[in-house]
Design brief:
Distance between the termini: 44 Å
Structural class: mainly alpha
Number of helices: 6
Number of strands: 0
Length: 167
């Protein structure tokens, strides 16, 4: 497995999956910390993310089928994802309820289609290997990274490092 493109794409896919999982797991505490209490707000943010993600995936697949501009599409999705993350957290800090739903919706609009495109690219790069093997491999890598990220030892190391830099 010396294919560098495959390794880079797997890392990219795993990072996107871990980020989505972390955001989903921490949306309620994130909103509560910034004074936006309530289950309704958390559900609205999650629903906006998912619904806009489905809309984005449908639009993205039709655009990709028609124009076949893969690199441009991936670049637009990546820029949209980065901007949406930034503005989502800014909206959380500003406690703007409408923007707290709009920007995570935009995040879903750009992030979910990019994940599907990542899997398609990984399957293209590792062509002789079947798609289920590729998806299984990326899932195993995702699970290992997630376990490492939530382990108490890793959390305590991150906490100690942040404590040193903040004090």
């Amino acid at each position: 497995m010396a294919n560098v493109n495959f390794i880079v794409l797997v890392i990219n896919n795993v990072v996107h999956t871990v980020v989505i999982a972390c955001l989903a797991a921490n949306i309620s505490p994130l909103l509560t910390t910034n004074g936006l209490k309530g289950t309704v707000m958390s559900v609205a943010v999650g629903a906006a993310f998912l619904v806009m993600g489905i809309i984005g995936a449908v639009l993205n697949s039709s655009i990709m089928s028609r124009w076949k501009k893969y690199k441009l599409n991936l670049s637009v999705c990546l820029a949209g994802t980065a901007a949406s993350y930034f503005f989502s957290f800014l909206a959380f800090r500003l406690k703007a309820k409408v923007l707290c739903v709009v920007f995570p919706g935009l995040l879903g609009f750009f992030e979910i289609p990019m994940r599907a495109q990542d899997v398609a690219f990984i399957c293209e790069v590792a062509y002789p290997v079947s798609e289920p093997v590729i998806v299984g491999t990326t899932t195993v890598v995702y699970c290992v990274v997630s376990l490492a990220a939530v382990s108490p030892r890793f959390s305590s190391i991150v906490y100690r490092l942040s404590e040193r830099h903040c004090s």
